[in-house]
Fold:
Amino acid sequence: MKRLKHPFEGLYYIITKDYHFVAHLLTSIVVIMFGFMLNLNGIEWLFIFSAIIVVLILEALNTALEETIDLVTKEYHPLAKHVKDISALAVLLACIYAVVVGVMVFIPKIIGLFN
Ligand SMILES: Nc1ncnc2c1ncn2[C@@H]1O[C@H](COP(=O)(O)OP(=O)(O)OP(=O)(O)O)[C@@H](O)[C@H]1O
Structure:
C-alpha cells in the first residue's frame, strides 16, 4: 500500500495540473463507452487498451520531463527546447497510433451497424 501512495500522489498532481492528461482520460472514457456499445471482441479491446495506456504513459512522462526542465532552468536554452519538443513528439506519435487503432477498430463496427 505504501508503494501505491506515490503513484497516486502523481495521479492526483497530474489530474489537477495537466489538462492534456485530463483530456486524454476523458477521451479514453468515451472510447471505452463506445467499445461497450459496439460490443468489441477480445483482440479489439486489447488494441484499444494498449493505445489508451501508451498515450497516458507518454503524456505522464512528457509532464514529468517538462517539470524537470523547468526545475533545471526557466531561461531559454536550446537543449531545454530539444527535450520538450522531442517529448511532445513522443506524445504526438502515441496519439497517431491511437487514432489509427481507433479508426481500424471502430469504422468497420460502425459500417457493420448499417449492413
Ligand atoms: N526553457 C526553455 N528553453 C527553450 N525552449 C523552451 C523552454 N521551455 C519551453 N520551451 C519551448 O516551448 C514549448 C512549450 O513548452 P511548455 O513547457 O509550455 O510545454 P507545453 O507543450 O505547452 O505543455 P503544457 O501546456 O503541458 O505546459 C516547448 O516544446 C519548447 O519548444
